[in-house]
């Protein structure tokens, strides 16, 4: 979830109802930005086409002061890897690639001084936009020339295709389970029993965290996606740290605040629960349109680990209940599932990398295991300020050791022959 109110950090994702990581926009795009936006087509990037390395065009996006510069404003159709680095721009924390108001790829939580991070997408000819909210020039046109070549149907590609279908089933099943769990949460809240509601909350939370990178771009049908009151990610998963005052509290964390900070269930709490149930049901229906490419799974897995590093490690996600380790484990599970569905194909593409990622997943899970507590809500110890002070650095190091090789998978699977 974006670390700032969605209305100020994201361009319209609109009626197409595509998500940031769904394969919703490889087709030709005519671009829908204003003339002022399109006039910036080459002001932040070289006019020559992006060079190709490892089978993918390479484009660098650098954030400095209030500027968002792109080293190449054009690239040939096919896999394109965008490498994003925030050198010195505290006011810019997010970069998105857009096509006809759809988010095709993004990187969030781009704090100055952090290592460069990448995402890979496969694009065909047309006009796209690189959106850097908070920059002096927020939108830059990115041009893709030619048509993406057919990948054929090699055994490796078939394995990857099978993996994307299997992962789609995993997402659908997780959403169905979330609908049930949120229904149970509403029932518990309606009963007025705070203890039962806390238990139901802890059981419901992991489902969204497992798949949030796949579904966070949806908005209510026919509504303005620049307004958080119509953005399903905000309505379901807003946090205290990214509260939009114009919209107010909503979703899981509004209920969390009432249960843990206020210690009571009010009529407003019951309204929060009813709205959450409605919005989760809408999301589950809209998400049935999702399809995936192999690189979507890889980008999504990397995004889930970035969520761990940027929010869970710091205790920002569950600031009232301190159930951050429950969400942490769910993010890791979602990332591991995406990897597992790609692994048969990746074993053929780069077995060394596949083994390295699998090993690092085991290390992260082992690091998490020491916090298991079957008597605690959600099955994990509370991630209190005291525990964070002593343990956050070690956990972060374990996640980073996984994140580094995991971030290389998207380019590998997007360029597979």
UniProtKB/TrEMBL annotation:
Residues 165-408 form the Imelysin-like domain. Residues 1-22 form the signal peptide. Residues 29-49 are annotated as: Disordered. One of its GO terms (cellular component) is periplasmic space. Coiled coil: none annotated. PANTHER family: IRON UPTAKE SYSTEM COMPONENT EFEO (PTHR39192:SF1). Belongs to the EfeM/EfeO family. This is Iron uptake system component EfeO. It comes from Branchiibius hedensis.
């Amino acid at each position: 979830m974006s670390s700032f109110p969605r209305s100020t950090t994201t361009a319209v994702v609109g009626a197409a109802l595509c998500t940031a990581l769904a394969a919703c926009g490889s087709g030709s795009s005519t671009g829908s930005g204003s003339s002022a936006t399109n006039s910036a087509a080459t002001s932040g990037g070289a006019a020559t086409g992006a060079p190709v390395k490892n089978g993918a065009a390479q484009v660098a996006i650098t954030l400095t002061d209030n500027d968002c510069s792109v080293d190449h404003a054009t690239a040939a159709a096919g896999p394109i890897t965008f490498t994003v680095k925030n050198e010195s721009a505290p006011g810019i924390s997010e970069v998105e690639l857009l096509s006809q108001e759809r988010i095709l790829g993004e990187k969030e939580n781009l704090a100055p001084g952090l290592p460069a991070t990448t995402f890979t997408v496969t694009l065909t000819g047309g006009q796209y936009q690189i959106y850097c909210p908070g920059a002096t020039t927020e939108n830059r046109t990115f041009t893709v020339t030619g048509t993406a070549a057919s990948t054929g149907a090699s055994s490796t590609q078939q394995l990857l295709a099978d993996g994307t279908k299997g992962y789609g089933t995993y997402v659908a099943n997780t959403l169905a389970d979330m609908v049930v769990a949120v229904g149970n949460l509403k029932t518990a809240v309606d009963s007025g029993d705070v203890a039962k509601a806390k238990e139901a909350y802890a059981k419901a939370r992991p489902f969204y965290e497992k798949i949030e990178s796949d579904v966070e771009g949806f908005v209510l049908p026919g509504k303005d996606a620049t307004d958080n009151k119509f953005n399903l990610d905000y309505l379901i998963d807003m946090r205290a740290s990214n509260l939009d005052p114009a919209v107010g509290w909503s979703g899981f964390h509004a209920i969390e605040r009432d249960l843990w900070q206020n210690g009571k269930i009010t009529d407003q709490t019951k309204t929060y629960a009813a709205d959450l149930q409605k919005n989760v049901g809408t999301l589950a229906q809209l998400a049935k349109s999702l399809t995936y490419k192999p690189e979507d799974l890889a980008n999504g897995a990397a995004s889930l680990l970035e969520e761990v590093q940027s929010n869970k490690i710091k205790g920002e996600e569950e600031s009232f209940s301190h159930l951050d380790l429950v969400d942490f484990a769910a993010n890791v599970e979602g990332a591991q599932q995406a990897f597992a569905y790609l692994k048969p194909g990746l074993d053929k593409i780069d077995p060394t990398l596949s083994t390295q990622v699998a090993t690092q997943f085991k290390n992260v899970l082992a690091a998490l295991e020491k916090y298991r507590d079957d008597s605690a809500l959600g099955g994990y110890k509370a991630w209190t300020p005291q525990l964070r002070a002593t343990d956050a650095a070690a956990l972060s190091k374990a996640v980073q050791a996984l994140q580094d090789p995991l971030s290389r998978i998207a380019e590998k699977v997007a360029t597979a022959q």
